[in-house]
Amino acid sequence: MILSWIDISIVLLYLALTLFIGFWLSKRASKNLESYFLGGNKIKWYLLGLSNASGMFDISGTMWTVTLVFVYGLKSAWIPWLWPVWNQIFVMVFLAVWMRRSNAMTGAQWITFRFGEGRGGRLSHLIVVIFAVISVIGFIAYFVGGIGKFAETFFAWDLSTVILGLHLTSAQVYALIIIAITTIYTLKGGMYSVVSTEVLQFLIMTVACISIGIIAFNSVTAEQIVAATPQGWGNMMPDWNLDLDWSSIFPALNDKISSDGFEMFGMLLMMMIFKGIFASLAGPVPSYDMQRILSTRTPAEAAKMSGLTSLVLYIPRYLMIGGFAVLALVYLKPEMMAMGTNMDFEMVLPMAIQKFVPVGLKGLLLAGLLAAFMGTFAAFINAAPAYLVNDLYKKYVNPEASNAKLIRYSYLSSFLLVLIGLGFGLFATSLNSLTLWITSSLYGGYAASNVLKWIWWRFNGMGYFFGMLGGLVASLIIPPLVRLWFPGIIDIYIFPVILVVSFLASWLGTLLTKPEDMEILKKFYKQTNPWGFWNPVKKAVMAEDASFEPNKDFKRDALNVIIGIIWQMSMVVIPLYLLTGQTNSTIVAIAVFVVTSVILKRTWYDNLKNIDRKKV
Prior knowledge:
Layout lengths: L4 H20 L1 H4 L3 H6 L6 H11 L3 H14 L14 H14 L6 H9 L3 H36 L6 E3 L2 E3 L1 H50 L2 H7 L23 H9 L4 H18 L5 H8 L3 H33 L1 H5 L10 H9 L4 H37 L5 H23 L5 H25 L5 H25 L9 H17 L6 H11 L6 H10 L9 H26 L3 H21 L13
Antiparallel strand pairs: 1-2
Helix pairs in contact: 1-9, 1-17, 4-9, 4-14, 5-8, 5-14, 6-12, 6-14, 6-24, 7-8, 8-9, 8-17, 8-18, 8-19, 8-20, 9-14, 9-17, 9-18, 12-19, 13-14, 14-16, 14-24, 17-18, 19-20, 19-21, 20-21, 22-23, 24-25
Subcellular location: Cell membrane
Family: Belongs to the sodium:solute symporter (SSF) (TC 2.A.21) family.
Keywords: Cell membrane, Ion transport, Membrane, Sodium, Sodium transport, Symport, Transmembrane, Transmembrane helix, Transport
């Protein structure tokens, strides 16, 4: 497809603007590491919230989610629980406050706040750095897989070539070019650049999403959708066995469902809830989400930032996702059937953009989606170098290094991580396989240690180290071993095995070594003030400070998490019900959104005014 000069001009203008922002902000970002990685803790919480929401608009995730709606219909609203998407609710309700009270720069630095500088603390610190680097490389590979396919669809030039003996397709070369531009502006501007470009991206994407929703709403009727889909496609309620039979309409979709491994939908949902509770309570992985929390000015603003992320993200995003899915279902079947055995369902999104989006809006949407990729990618390559430079080089190699040298080494570490991530991403098989490995296997190794660190006073640095190490090794070794006996099994069903291995390693590592020093535990408990099994430490703190008020908010936080998940889910299904012509269900979903918003206003938001009274 050849884009019009108007669309190409809009895309090129946006790319030039992002480079300009990066270089313009470079002076402010290069003052010191706090300015580079956290924006000096001076960025407004609502800008960080918009940036965080924008960062979740990545192309790879959007292509994957459009495919889910296309294939699974309203039941697709449950599938992002694989991550789980509602980890943002746990963060919003209490974890953001707990994390921000540390005053740390990175998740690894936070670990020394929890476990101290002894042997266990140092080993825990090291294993978090290793996990952060592995997870960032995994996400870079995930992003590369989407951007190449996406760009090749819209730009007509054949850029296939041979580099260092490697035969690269046009899609891979496009990915290299876009990643190079993203890396340059991120290196120059740091967190300031990431947030500034992502706020701009959010505004562009919101306009584009609403426009796509309007196009779909005016172009597709409920009757057309019913005719194009099997019975049950428009029903959100999950069945134990996925009852979607595409045989008479689009037979290849049955093969897609089988290859995804989602046929036992009830079991899948139970596993997603089981995994989701542990993964969410563990808190954000040490990457871009945690960096934004640590970048806020106060703990209350960290909570507000996380809440705003959910509030502004889902309705606009699902207007676009649902819009493209229903347009493709009704109008793109011939083109997709023509692919034959080479059918690639991840191309639903770019094909729909080609056919349905008018000139001008197409350029705006492409600029927005490119910005989405660039913003999310930039956030990751801003986060990981903080661990290598601040948590390794500065801490252990050269504590007296100048700011100029630290910033220079941050550039170098970003560049090396991008190269490694590219190496994995250029040869990944599919977005779905990468998504399932990252969300289930890799996170399975993260969950156990990071749940225990919040809630159990006896859990020590050695337990954390062995739990994380056991989880990492298990996430790399167990999935291929399990598939020897159960070919085709998806990663989420392997999650409990990895979780058990990590829990056992955490438990044994803790019980076979001595507790952390009580002074370290008292400082952490008093400053963070978590709920959980902290009774010995709580007694010690209150013996020294009778005015200390321990956290008694567990029941309220648990209620707010449940209400928050319903609130978030309502924002996902409102656009889907609207675009599929289910008027009554749309009204019910809106009512649920309003009621849950009122409850959260009273039980969560109104209580934030008391949060920052605690001095940290």
